[in-house]
Design goal:
The protein has 332 residues and is of the alpha+beta class. It contains eight helices and four strands; from the N terminus they run H-E-E-E-E-H-H-H-H-H-H-H.
Length: 332
């Protein structure tokens, strides 16, 4: 009887004469070991079609319940997993169930007689077959109450959604304005970039032309520098010839010291000429220094220096050509 009540959904261990629900699991004996679960299957005949219409296709209805030691329970109808609620609804109104009048254990008759009017009413309603509808009514009322609460929550959600929709609408408008502003900004940036690109291209062309001009000027300056260096080398050669001439005059002065009295005036004149030549040499050296400082920039000054030295070169040429020198004119 306990197994029948348990498979029909009994949840109270006291009704099954136990302290806990795990007491229904075999704990072992001297000859057998304990098991990990308890299982009961109740086979009911359905030839007369007394079960609900969804069971009309089955000649037998098998109710199965399993309980594991970890407290997990499983329910099945015809080997299809279900809820305990489904099993309770299956037996509701039939007089069969864990607390129905069709299953009365020993000592239960006296308890029914001595029970309160409310409890006896439960038995009468079960025998009359209206408990199923009353249970459905209560369940429907609970569902209606839950639905009403859900409707209230839905109303609150709708109000909140409307408020958020207004906020989202404003945000959407802001986003559209931002999108338009960003598009306009992109167009402006593109226009400015194109303009800057054109200016950069023009500046690049101008700099390339200027670079080419500077390179041409640099080549010209190098050519001018080479010409000035050649002129300087010629001037240095003429200075060496002047020094050699000065040495010759000094040797002649040494040879003529015997006639000192006659040649004192000549010596004095030669000394003056020597000093003049020395001044000219110093001036020439100073002019050479100035020429080197202005080689790269002042070709005109280098040419002027060349013209300035041309009389000296002509004078040297006349001495070499046989004309009388100053000393010879003085002696004469």
């Amino acid at each position: 009887m306990d197994a029948i009540k348990w498979v029909m959904g009994e949840q109270s261990p006291k009704q099954l004469r136990g302290k806990g629900m795990e007491d229904v699991i075999f704990a072992g004996s001297n000859g057998k070991s304990s098991v990990g679960m308890a299982e009961v299957s109740l086979v009911l005949d359905n030839d007369n079609g007394s079960f609900p219409p969804e069971m009309a296709g089955f000649s037998e209805v098998v109710i199965t319940r399993r309980l594991f030691r970890d407290g997990e329970s499983e329910y099945a109808i015809n080997n299809q997993a279900c809820r305990m609620k489904d099993i309770t609804h299956l037996f509701m109104g039939t007089g069969v169930g864990s607390r129905a009048y069709a299953v009365i254990e020993q000592g239960r008759v006296g308890a029914i007689i001595d029970s309160k009017p409310e409890d006896r009413r439960h038995w009468i309603e079960e025998a009359a077959g209206i408990s199923k509808y009353k249970h459905r009514k209560q369940e429907t009322l609970r569902k209606l109450e839950l639905t009403q609460q859900n409707l209230l929550r839905v109303g609150d959600v709708i109000a909140e959604v409307k408020r958020q929709m207004n906020s989202l609408y404003r945000q959407a408008k802001k986003a559209e304005r931002f999108k338009e502003a960003r598009q306009a900004l992109k167009e402006i940036e593109l226009t400015l970039t194109l303009r800057d690109f054109g200016e950069i291209q023009e500046e690049k062309s101008r700099l390339e032309e200027e670079l080419e001009l500077q390179q041409g000027q640099l080549r010209t300056s190098k050519d001018e520098l080479t010409a000035i260096q050649n002129q300087l080398q010629q001037i240095q050669t003429r200075l060496g010839e002047t020094d050699r001439q000065l040495k010759v005059l000094q040797e002649q002065d040494t040879q003529q010291k015997v006639s000192r009295e006659k040649q004192e005036g000549l010596l004095h004149q030669l000394q003056q000429e020597q000093e003049g030549l020395e001044r000219e040499r110093l001036e020439t050296g100073q002019e050479l220094t100035e020429i080197q400082a202005w080689l790269q920039d002042k070709e005109a000054e280098a040419r002027a220096c060349g013209k300035r030295w041309r009389p000296l070169r002509n004078g040297c040429g006349r001495n070499k050509s046989g004309r009388p020198s100053r000393r010879e004119r003085y002696i004469a």
